[in-house]
Here is the input.
Amino acid sequence: MNALFRACPGLRETLPHVSLATLPTPVEAMPRLGEAVGAPRLYVKRDDLSAEAYGGNKVRKLEFLLGRALSEGRRTVITFEAAGSNHALATAIYARQLGLDSVSMLVPQPNARYVAANLLRSHAAGAALAYRGGIPRLAAAALAECARRRLRDGRWPLLIGPGGSDPPGIAGFVDAAFELREQVEAGLLPEPAHVYAASGTMGTVVGLVLGLAAAGLRARVIAVRVTDARFTSMRRAKRLYVRTNRLLHAACPAFPLVPFPEDQLVFRHEFFGEEYARFTEAGMAAVRLAEETEGLHLEGTYTGKTLAALIADARAGHLREAPALFWNTYNSRPAAQSGADDYHALPESLHGYFEEPVQPLDQPETGRGAGGT
Ligand SMILES: *Cc1c(COP(=O)(O)O)cnc(C)c1O
Here is the structure.
């Protein structure tokens, strides 16, 4: 059972939810990485192992989002994302597992090897993929798709926002914070002073802040921005926080209304680089160091940039005493054999991701990590 339901049993009756994840995810010490950078009390939260079919941070959100879709009798979910999105892929995989149709409305991003891989896997999972160059055209296509599904299914699809960072999805990371408290109480790690996590659409970090505050943990969430500044701001974070808190309090009054603890959320902007999904030297150096020291497989869009922030803080001497937790949000489960490796079955507008070169920093790994996923 989810830690949130243990802490607040009333929510179990009222908050739509479906079990998809394998929880709790492990916490582990990272002594070799810690020693290399000057963070002797360094731990990792292994959300890369969050589920059998596909791990990473999205399945925690999808337990509550797809739970809602089922409880409302929806037949289709439609989500919005960048072309290589892990969220679109996770939604495709878990929607199919629950017998729901899924549609991914995609926008362009810099090319990388994982983009092609994720597109193929989404397609193999039965997702309908639509790709448009601008938000207005994407919105128009989404409206048409909604109308078509309404006619076919007799029901409107459930729309899921980018990254699954709608208040019900964010509840998945409130749950994650309660899970962390249980692990601290069980002595699996000291209470962390700093929790490092990527901030893409902010659902992960906002859910963690709300959950930590409600669970009485004082850890600061170091939210490393990896998307355009308009997706990550304190104002937007506070709005999402309040909406999620109200949702949980309304579902079960025993879940407290907790004022937004502004000092528990710290945004870091200096590891973003040029744009979303554009890899950085610092991020890729962090990916290599994690691989060499701990055998941890990270990537350049989210987790590499996040670990780069942690490493910079450690090298500056800020993590010598304070326990720090790196939240690994990236899937490490191997892809099931899909059988579908011909991209010609995908919409032609997506073929460029298979035919054009990837960005220069996305070179095949050499040495120990080669072929690691
Ligand atoms: C989506 C994603 C994130 C960002 O999570 P948000 O809740 O959107 O901020 C971080 N890491 C990975 C690997 C992701 O796929």
Q: What stands out?
A: The pocket of pyridoxal-5'-phosphate is lined by residues 56-57, 86-87, 163, 165, 198-204, 302-303, 329-330 (CB under 6 Å).
